[in-house]
Amino acid sequence: MTRKTGKKPSGKDSGRAGARGKGRVPARPGRAGAMGKGAVSAAPGREGVMVGTGNLLVLGSVALDSVKTPFGEVSEVLGGSASFFATAASYFTAVSVIAVVGEDFPERHLDFLRQRDIDLTGLERRQGKTFRWRGEYSKTLDTQLNVFETFRPHVPASHQSPDMLFLANIDPDLQRGVLEQVKRPRLVACDTMNFWIEGKRDALFRLLTEVDVLVINDGEARALGQNSNLVAVSRMILGAGPKTLIIKRGEYGVLMFTGDRVFAVPAFPLEEVKDPTGAGDCFAGGFMGYLARTGKLSEDALRRAVVYGSVMASFAVEAFSLDRLRGLEYKDIEARFGAFKQMTVFEEF
Amino acid sequence: MTRKTGKKPSGKDSGRAGARGKGRVPARPGRAGAMGKGAVSAAPGREGVMVGTGNLLVLGSVALDSVKTPFGEVSEVLGGSASFFATAASYFTAVSVIAVVGEDFPERHLDFLRQRDIDLTGLERRQGKTFRWRGEYSKTLDTQLNVFETFRPHVPASHQSPDMLFLANIDPDLQRGVLEQVKRPRLVACDTMNFWIEGKRDALFRLLTEVDVLVINDGEARALGQNSNLVAVSRMILGAGPKTLIIKRGEYGVLMFTGDRVFAVPAFPLEEVKDPTGAGDCFAGGFMGYLARTGKLSEDALRRAVVYGSVMASFAVEAFSLDRLRGLEYKDIEARFGAFKQMTVFEEF
Lengths: 349, 349
Known about the structure:
The structure is a homodimer.
Chain A: E1 2-5, H1 29-32, E2 40-44, E3 50-59, E4 63-69, E5 72-79, H2 81-89, E6 94-102, H3 107-115, E7 123-126, E8 132-136, E9 139-144, E10 164-167, H4 172-181, E11 187-190, H5 194-199, H6 201-208, E12 213-217, H7 218-225, H8 230-238, E13 244-248, E14 254-258, E15 261-265, H9 279-294, H10 299-316, H11 323-326, H12 330-344
């Protein structure tokens, strides 16, 4: 009935010691050692530099998207939260995917993910059709869950000790099911959406008691907190489990609440936002990829992670699907990180 | 027919050498001297410290506001762009007002402005009723222009050499009329609104050729630039005269475009935004007050000015009318400036 796909052609084990990180950040030797035992590995990279790799696992969707925006239209392109997340994260760290596709899922999309050194051991291929999403400028027009409807995520033995885990938007009971299949990671983050906030509120709050970071957009935050004021919402949510709440505000950037601290970063002003689909998942991928890469969870590290997430989101919206990331190099990421610094810095007095 | 009001009870001349700056920033002796000739003066302040005062002039409205928000309701309180602007600016520098009120304008509001050392030599009191505005959470419900309708601003001789000039939202021909009555200031900034953007577009663009900084909200920017993308809008507007474009985005903060540089600062997250009326004018007052105070117009100074403007706006919305500023002290402003820094800072790598 179900079979697995996406075995890495290199036959590397899941410990990812050999992860080479095409286009991935070159590790600074002094930093790789800052990680916890087993949390990072370093090996000569493809480009002859040291690559540090935290072990990051994502549960989400791999989908075929059809999108129309004022800048054009695409049909059945690579989409899904796990695809966006993993591709963005792959610039920073080793990342593995738990997801499902149907028989019709094109091999070329798997090849793209494999080329980014994304571990697809946990990607099931099942009888039936792949999850399809159709939208216009982020507004959903049609959703065909297909194989995603009966998806019961299974975490392969090789992935049961992730350093960090991201539970993308999916039924909160399934998110919790994955959490129960793994040894408690150093960091667990999750996303959700209004459908679950309204329909499975209790299950969602049960999940939140086990989550470190909640990453949602402002509309979802207001619905979850049942309050239009985001400061009030943050107090409520931080009281429900998460130590950190990240609120994505689209073109207005991101707010991060941690305890009584708040960090705000604007979105990168772009002249053409061709397709916002996946921007939030690319944000989460950059955010957690950076954290897994460094192994640090200090306020400073979280802030830099938010900026790296914003950088990845800013690239994602410059083209349809993951097209902007296809030719992206790590130096482009560092350059835009520098542009974020330039855009936000001011002298104290 | 018309008579002047608001002569300063102290009888000080308009050179403002003696401006004492209640609650105003104490000057750092080394900085006061950085101003151009005649642009700043320093004298022992009320609190025994040196006070540096640039010479800032504002054209705008002094009004009676009736406002309803979810937090309460007030009737015929002190409002108007010039009132908000001047009160915010008065924490930083000497400020003079060109405006008009009717016979019915309460003396206690003038007393409040005078207590802030705001020069009211240019405030006319005319026969008729004062400009009244009624709104709900910044949405206009009713406007009675009254004496404001036939207002023809006259700049008294004592105010014809301002160091900096702010032309608040009013007919662009009247804004230009004031510009023609003064010796070219070091910095001219202006605001406008959709009514003039739609109704007097040519006059507005004529004004813009003589303006250094345009301060408008995002809706106005899109209407003026006839484009929904703010980066595209900034290029168009910066090509029309202003060297700097500041776009106010309410709860999302401020964008400043200067040449090919962009600076973004978030709004201060508040748990209760009691009344947003006047926030934009308090922003402009803090922005120009700081610039007039320091006399610097570098990118660094403009950025700090944007933050000081954001600080003043964040206080303004915490209460109705100018009530939050009644007891505000300069150290409160510095503390919130520090909070803005804390909220936005991140380490580069």
